[in-house]
Amino acid sequence: MTARWRPVLAPAVHLRYDRVRGTDLLLLPERVVVLKGSAGDVLRLCNGEREVPDIVAELARRHPGAPVADEVPAFLGRIRAEGWLR
Amino acid sequence: MNTLSPPSGACDPAMASPRSPGSPGTSPVRPWALLAELTHGCPLRCPYCSNPLELATKSAELTTAEWEDALRQAADLGVVSAHLSGGEPLLRPDLTEIVAAADGAGIHTQLVTSGVGLGRARLGRLADAGLRSVQLSVQHADPATNDLIAGRRSFTDKERTAALIREAGLPLGLNVVLHRHNLDALDALLDLAPAWGADRIELANTQFYGWALRNRAALLPSRERLAVAARTVRRRRAELAEQRIEVVWVVPDYFEGNAKPCMGGWGAISFTITPDGTVLPCPAAAAIPGLDAPTVRDHDLEWIWHRSRTFTRYRGTAWMREPCRSCDLREKDFGGCRCQAFALTGDASATDPACRFSPDHHLVRDLVDAPPAPASPTLGEPRRPARRAAAVAPEEAEEAEEAEEAH
Predict the structure, then answer these.
(1) What is the DSSP string of B220-237?
(2) CB–CB contact B106 A19 (8 Å)
(3) Mean pLDDT confidence for B223-250
(4) How far is A32 from A16, CA to CA, in rounded Å?
(5) Does A76 touch chain B (CB under 8 A)?
(6) Which of A17, A30, A31, A78 to substitute to test the interface with B, most B CBs within 10 Å?
């Protein structure tokens, strides 16, 4: 289902590094979402050009041995369900 | 949500909505959000205005440079989101500079406006400066009634402004304050959200402070009509969600028997800077006597947030008396609202009378259980205009002209 999907943040959603708390955030009207772990790095790869397999491949290259093939598509699906990715 | 194991390098987003800022006590509490009341001037005269009865004058307002400095300090303190509000923030000729300062400091900005006096050119400049979202007030779905409640012709301006906001590609929220003069129009108000292209509609039952407290008798709805409205919201919410429109219902705390977790706790998540630079835990707190609120002209925000007596006074739970002190809800509702406790009992450290456990709960119960008054012919006393000493700068004069009329 995600093979041809090229995820990109929804127009109202802004990814920003919070220098005070040392964490990535999603900022949108009336809401702040704190991103844990590498969630921000994953979302930075969502530029509307990469397909999900490209994103998985890039993360697998950066994090050898990590179970990114299972976890990243599921994570992106959850973020899309929230309406934050398109 | 479950968190993935660190070696995966992946990821799980955890909601830290401004209502759940994480475990207290592990690190200094830092504010997430700022309400910047840029001016108390406003073309509208809504009788439930959230501004204080004592409105700041134009000559007392912070300068552009003072706002720029305050926004930089706020960002250093941890603020990531700001509502630029008023009064009507469009009356500040330097609004673009203020937006740019916030955005430059890393703060996400939302404009909260009546929509009166916003043209395409100015909105374009605001968006270029980094404005991220606009919230537009609507008083009623019927144009004539909207204009009656707002105290001036404004419905057509709002409709036009909504279209401009969509055209600019900015997220649009509609803000509706509900009371007995518009509660029955709820379906039509909800229809405005898809018609005007809004992403969100906030239905805020009137909270009784300042002007709304003064006009409470004219504004308070009956329990029966409120129950109908709550059912309407439940019925329409799913339908609007399918159109990706979020419906927010701000509960009428007088009727529920529960104290609201006001501001997510005193000095816990956000703060307000008023037009003259006074820094408060919430916009209504100016009414609490002896608060001795500091200003950005005299102190830096770091000291004000962490050290000032104004902010430490009701932070946490140590200040509580019974029944709050031993109540299981004390970490959830924080004893309710200090401003409401003061407004209704004269004691800001009392349990919020909206709470059914409050010894003063009869003060609100008697009001809402009273037999419905006959249809009130009056809207209440219109909010006074704030006195303004100077005209707007020439470059903004054309667009602001209409908004200025009423001053």
Answers:
(1) PPPHHHHHHHHHHHHHHH
(2) yes
(3) 95
(4) 10
(5) no
(6) A30
Q: Is B73 helix (H, G, I), strand (E, B) or coil?
A: helix
Which residues contact residue B164 at a Cβ distance below 8 angstroms, ignoring those fewer than 6 apart? B118, B119, B120, B123
Determine the pLDDT at residue A2.
54
| Mean predicted confidence (pLDDT) in B35-54 | 95
Q: Given an 8 Å threshold on Cβ–Cβ distance, is B173 in contact with A79?
A: no
Reported pTM: 0.89
Q: How far is CA B187 from CA B150, B242, B336, B392, in A?
A: 20, 17, 30, 39
pLDDT, position B27? 60
Q: Where are the domains of chain A?
A: 14-81
Rama region for B67: left / alpha / beta (φ>0; ψ in -120 to 50; rest): alpha
- B76: chain A residues, CB-CB within 8 Å: 20
Q: How confident is the model at residue B259 (pLDDT cuts 50, 70, 90)?
A: very high
pLDDT at B6 over 70: no
Are the Cβ atoms of A29 and B9 closer than 8 angstroms? no
**Given phi > 0 = left and psi -120 to 50 = alpha, else beta, which region is B380?**
left
Nearest-Cα residue of chain B relative to residue A29: B133
Q: Please list every residue in chain B whose beta carbon sits closer than 8 Å to the beta carbon of residue A68.
A: 8-10
A69 touches chain B (CB under 8 A): no
Which one of A23, A34, A44 would you mutate to disrupt binding with B, by most B Cβ within 10 Å of its Cβ? A34
- B203-231 burial, b at 16+ Cβ within 10 Å, e below that, comes to bbbbbbbbbbbbbbebbbbbeeebeebbe
Quote the ipTM score: 0.92
| Cα–Cα dist B94/B167, whole Å | 23
Contact B95, B89 (CB under 8 A): yes
Half-sphere exposure of B399 (CA within 13 A, CB side): 20
* B2 touches A at CB < 8 Å: no
